[in-house]
Design goal:
Strand order of the largest sheet: 1-2-3
Length: about 170
């Protein structure tokens, strides 16, 4: 018996009546497993999306940290008058972000394409390149659950500054 079969005058209670409520309950009971199946279908996509955001966020933080590291080392190379390559490398290792092991980076210093030694006179440009060593790139690969394979982004950053004074090698 449905609500259409019962005259309106016989319905007691709220306007939809007890008969309508019974019909709604039968409909709900017949779809009990549908939401569980929908959840099972959508869950892997949600997990993929969530861990993808986390992995790319971590990779972005590493890239930003490597840029800051290169910038800090280049600033030291451009400003300090008596600085050696070892000092610049140590400054880069000290400025390495916590998401990167300082022992895994390589530091390269040059005069931004001039072919000579860096900071021979004021106004020269010095370029410091900081990268993760090739033998450690696999340690920083992006791993996303449910995604086939791994991706190893190239974490290489550089900082370029104009030299403020002629560098004197100690």
């Amino acid at each position: 018996m449905t609500s259409r079969d019962v005259p309106r005058s016989m319905l007691v209670g709220p306007p939809w009546g007890a008969v309508l409520l019974g019909d709604a309950m039968r409909r709900v009971r017949s779809h009990d497993g549908a939401s569980a199946v929908e959840f099972a279908i959508v869950l892997p996509l949600l997990v993929l999306f969530l861990f993808g955001i986390i992995a790319f966020g971590l990779a972005f933080a590493r890239a930003q940290g490597m840029e800051a590291t290169a910038r800090e080392a280049a600033r030291l190379a451009a400003v300090a008058r008596t600085v050696t390559e070892v000092d610049v490398e140590q400054a880069a290792r000290d400025a390495t972000p916590p998401t990167v092991n300082a022992d895994h980076i390589e530091v390269e210093i040059d005069d931004d394409g001039g072919g000579g030694a860096w900071c021979q006179q004021a106004g020269d440009r010095v370029r410091v390149t900081v990268r993760i060593a090739d033998d450690h790139l696999s340690d920083y690969s992006l791993v996303i659950p449910l995604w086939p394979g791994e991706s190893s982004p190239d974490f290489e950053s550089y900082g370029v500054f104009n030299c403020e004074a002629r560098r004197t090698v100690p």
